[in-house]
Amino acid sequence: MTADLISRAQAGDGDAFRELTEPHRRELQVHCYRMLGSFHDAEDVLQDVLLAAWQGFGGFQGRASIRTWLYRIATNRCLNARRSASRRPAREWDVPGVEPPEPTRLGQVVWLEPIPDAFLADAIHVPLGPEARFEQSESVSLAFVTALQVLPPRQVAVLVLRDVLGFHAAEVAGMLDSSVESVNSALKRARAGLRRRLQAPDREPPPASGSPAEDAVVARFVSAYESADLGALVSMLTDDVFVSMPPMPLEYEGRDVVARFCTGIFGANRRFDLVPTRANGQPAFGAYLRTPTGIRHGTGLFVLTLSGDRISAMTRFDNDVLPWFGLPRSLPSR
Fold first, then answer.
1. Where does residue 130 rank: exposed (0-12), middle (13-18), buried (19+ CB within 10 A)?
2. What is the pLDDT of residues 106-137, one digit of tens each?
3. Cα 171–177–183 angle (5° rounding)?
4. DSSP label of 64
5. Which CATH number fits domain 212-331: 3.40.50.11810, 3.10.450.50, 3.40.50.10770, 3.40.50.2000?
6. pTM of the full structure
C-alpha cells in the first residue's frame, strides 16, 4: 500500500502525498517548535518543509523511511531559519499605569512563544527511537525549549534528534550531511550546555497533568489571583520563583521581587478573571482585565511551572497568543 502511494505521489498525485505525510505533520511542527522556540515561526517553517518535500518527492529513493526523510528536510530548514531569521524584537513595558520594579536581569529569548497542548496530543505519543533520553512532556516544557534557544543551532539539532527523538547517530549524521564523530562531539557539547542552563536546586517534581494534586494547585492560584490576594499568592511561590514576560525582556527571580511585581499589577484596583487552558504540557490561563463597563479585555496568557504544590515559575505572554488557544480577545460582561 505504501509503495503504491509513493508511486502515485511521485507521479504528481497530491492526495497520495498528503496521505503519506499527514501522519507526521504534528510531530514535525513540534520538532520545528523545539528548534525555533516560536509557535508562529514553526508553522511557517512547516509549510516550507511540506512544500519542499512535495517539490522534491520525485527524488525520494526509499533509502530511509518517509518520516526520517521529512525530519531531514525539517531539521535543515530550521537550521536555515535560526541562522538567517530576524527574531521577534524585544518590546518595552506597555502596561498603562503600572511601573514595574527593577528587573533581576534582562532575558535573551524574547521571541519565545507557547504552544497549545492541542497541538501536542498527536506529537508526543509517537514511538521514539532507542536513543531517546528525555520524557516527551519534559522536552516541550517552557524551560527546556528556552534552554535550547541559547545553544548553537547545530548542537540543538543534534540534541533534539538524538536525545528527544531517539534517532541513531548514523541517522543524524545522514540528516546533517556530517560524520558520526562530528554528531557525537556536538551532542556532548549540547548536553553540557543544556545541563548548565537547566541547573536548578533540588525541588519536587510537578504533579501529574490533570491530577487532583495539580487541580488543587490551579484552584488555589486562580482564587488568589482573581481576588488579588497577594498574601495567598506569595505563599504559593517557591523561594526562587522566576517570572518572565516575552517579548518583554524583564525577568524577576525570588519571592520578594516577584511579590513587588504582583503588587504593581494588582494596584489601582486592577482585577482579573482567568480562563484555564494548557500550554507546553503546563497549566495556563488567559488573563482578562475587568473594566467599569463589565467587558473584560484579554491582557495575555500565563503559563505556570509547578514544583509539588507550589509555583516555581510564571511566564506571561502577550494577548496576541490568545486565539491560538481558542480564547477570545475579550469576554462579555457577566
1. exposed
2. 999 999 999 999 988 877 667 666 667 777 78
3. 60
4. S
5. 3.10.450.50
6. 0.94
